[in-house]
Amino acid sequence: MLRLMKYLRPYLLLILLAVGLLFAQAMADLALPNYMSDIVNVGIQQGGIQSGVPSAIRQSEMNRLFLFMTADQKSQVLSDYTLVDTNSANYSTIVKQYPDVANEPIYVLNNISQTEITALDPIMGKAMLVVYTIEQAQSDPAKAAQLSAQLGIDLSKLPAGTNLFTLIQQLPPAQLAQITAAINKQFAAFDTSTLTQAAATPIKAEYTALGVDVNKVQNNYLFSIGGLMLLVTLASVTCSIIVGLLAARIGSGAARDVRHDLFAKVESFAKADFDRFSTASLITRSTNDITQVQMVVILMLRFVFYAPILGIGAVIRAVDKSPSMTWIIGLGVGLLLVIILSVFSISLPRFRKIQKLTDRLNLVTRENLSGMMVIRAFNTQNFELNRFDKANTDITQNNLFVNRVFVTMMPVMMMLMNGLTVLILWVGSHQVANLTLQVGDMIAFMQYAIMVVFSFLMLSMMFIFLPRASVSGDRIAEVLAVTPSIQDPAEPKKFPSNGKGEVEFRNVSFRYPGAEEDLLHDINFTARPGQTTAIIGSTGSGKSSVINLIPRFFDVTQGAVLVDGIDVREVGQRELRDRIGYIPQRGTLFSGTVESNLRYADENASMETLRKATDIAQASSFIDAMDGGMEAEISQGGKDVSGGQKQRLAIARALVKHPKIYIFDDALSALDFKTDSALRRALKKETGQSTMIIVTQRVSTIKNAEQIIVIDDGKIVGKGTHDELMKTNETYREIASSQLTAEELE
C-alpha cells in the first residue's frame, strides 16, 4: 500500500487544504460541548451571569462588600468601578440601564479587560456571598443560628431590628478579620466556576434591586450563545462538505493515475511476463483492487486525519473540564485498542484470501462465458455450475466471516460508549453534589469522552477497509514492480531508410523462461523481400515460436534475428513493429465497427485504402452483405462473424498498414481452398515487394513459395522449394503426402 503513496504527490496541495479544513472542522466540533456547558452553567443555572463581578452595584451594597475586603482589594475594586449619581455626565445613559440610580448612587464597572475581570472575580464573588449570607440570616432562623456560630455572637438575643452590618462594622478590626476568614473558609473548596455559580444568586438580586430585567439578561445570553453554536455548526458542516469533495477528487484522481500506469505496464509486458499473472487476476487488479485503494484514500482523508485531531483535542478539553475524571477516558481508550487490535488480527488473513478467491471467481466466470458453446456441446453445464458454485460459496463464506467480526464490533463499541456515559454520570454526580464540578462541565466532559470514543470508532471503520485495501495495494504494486523482460536499448538504432524488410535468423536458439532445455536449436535462414518464405512442421515443432522472435514477443537465447541487417534487440520495439504486419492464427477484433477495426492499423487511412485492403483479403463480399457495410457493428472479440471472416478482416487490417514484412501465423487455416487460393494470388500481386513469412500446416498454401522451411522438434530439417523438398526431405514428403493426392503433388 505504501508503494502507491507516490500517486498522491500531485494532489499534495489539495491534501494539505483538506487537512487544514479538517482541523477547522475539529476545532468547531470541539467548541460545541463547551458552548453547551456555558448554556447549562451560565445561561440556565446562573441566569446569564457570566462572572462574580456585577456590571453595576448600589453604593450601599458596595459599602457592605468593603467590610469583607482588605485595603488592597478595596483599592483594586474602586479602580475598576466608577460612582454614578444624578449629577454624573453619563447619568441619562446609565438611568436607562439601571433605573435605581435615580434613588441612590451606584458603582458601574469600567470597560476593563478579561484578565482584570478574572482577577476581580474571587474578590467580588466571595464578598457578595458573605454579604448575601448575612442578609439571608437576618430573615432565616436556621441560617441565623449557623451564622451565630461563625460570628461568635448569639443573634437570637439581639434586639429586634438590629442591623447586623452596623454591628459588624463596629467590631474591632482583628475580630472583623477573624469573622471574615471564618466565613470565607466555607468557600475555600470552590473553584472559580463554582464560586461564580454561587455568586450568581446575590448578583441577580442586586440587578433586580437596580431595576434590571434579569429574564432579559438570561435570554440575551442564551440567544447569543445559541446563535454562536449555529454559526460554528454551519462552519463545521461547510468544512465537512468541502473535505468530502476534495477527498473524492483526490481519491478518484489517484485511482485514475494508478489504473493508467497499471494498464500501461501490462501493455509493456512480453508474452513471458503474462505467465506471472492470469488474465482474470489482472482484470481484478485493474478494477476491484484499485477501487479498494480509492475507497481507503477517501476514507483516510475523511477520517484518519480528522479522528486523531478530534480525539486529542477532546482529551485536552476533557482534562480541562475535570482532571479527576480523566482516568475514565483512559479506561475507555484501552478497551477500544484491545477490541480493534483483535479484530485487525482476525480479519487481515481473511482479506488476503478474499482477493485470491475473487481472482478465482473471475477466472471461472470468464472461462464459462468464453467457452459457453463448448460447455453446451459436451453437456457439462452441471459440472461448470458446480465449479462456479464452489468458487462463489468460498468467497461468500469468507465475506460472511469478516462481516460477522465487524458486526459484533459495533454493538460492543456502542455498549462501551454507553458504559462510559453511565460511569461519567455516576462519578460526576458525586462531584456536583460536593460542589467541585458544575453540571454543565459534567455534560461537556461526557460529550468530550464520547468524542474520544467516536474518534476511535471512526478509526475502527478504517480497519474494515484498510486490511483489504492493503492487500489490494500490494497486488497492484506487484504488477507495477514488474520489469518487462523485453526492453528497448538505452540508445536504439534506426533502420536504414532504404531498408526493404529482409529478415535473417543467424544461429538462433531459444528456450522459454524457466525451461530447462532449448525449444529451438541453431535456426538459420533468410527471408528476402519480394519472396514468400513458408514455415511448416508438425504440431509443437516450434513454428510459431520462430516467428514470435521477429517482432520480439520473445528474445532469442542465443544467436540473433536481424531485420535489414540490424539485430532486432538493438532497435526500439515501436520502430520494429511499425515495419511488421502481424496476422495471428486467431484473428482478434475489437468492439466497434468494421471500419474502426481496419483503421486500427492506420487511423488516417483513406476509405479507398480500406476498400482496397478488403478486396485483397477477399472480405468485401461479406462486408457489403452486413447491415451497414463498413459501419456494421463488431462485438467484443468479433463473436458476430465467423472464423474465416475474422481472419480475412485481420489480414485486411494488416494490409492497411503497408508494412515491409508480413507474418501469417497459420492465419489462413479457417479459409476454404477457393478463398485461400484467391487471397494468395491477390497478396502476391499487391505485396510483391514485401517480405512474406507464412506459418502453416497446409502444403497447398505454400506450394508456390520461393522458400519453404521444414521444422521438426525445434530444428530445421529441410529448406528449399516444394519440388526440391519433395525430392530431398522425408519429413516434408510425409506431410505433403498426408494432405495431397499424387496428382496434386505433381
How many individual β-strands?
A: 15
| CATH superfamily caption of the domain at 2-36 and 223-480 | ABC transporter type 1, transmembrane domain
Name given to the CATH architecture of the domain at 2-36 and 223-480: Up-down Bundle
Radius of gyration: 46 Å
CATH topology of the domain at 2-36 and 223-480: ABC transporter transmembrane region fold
Shape, per Cα inertia axes = rod-shaped
Sum up the structure in keywords.
746 residues; four-stranded antiparallel sheet; rod-shaped; six-stranded mixed sheet; alpha/beta; ABC transporter transmembrane region fold
How is this structure best summarized?
By secondary structure, the protein is an alpha/beta fold. It is built from 28 helices and 15 strands.
Structural features, described:
The chain is of the alpha/beta class. Among the domains are: 2-36 and 223-480, ABC transporter type 1, transmembrane domain (ABC transporter transmembrane region fold); 52-212, no CATH class. 62% of the residues lie in helices and 10% in strands. The chain has 28 helices and 15 strands. Helix 1 packs antiparallel against helix 10 (214-267) and helix 5 (114-137) crosses helix 6 (141-151). The two termini are 68 Å apart.
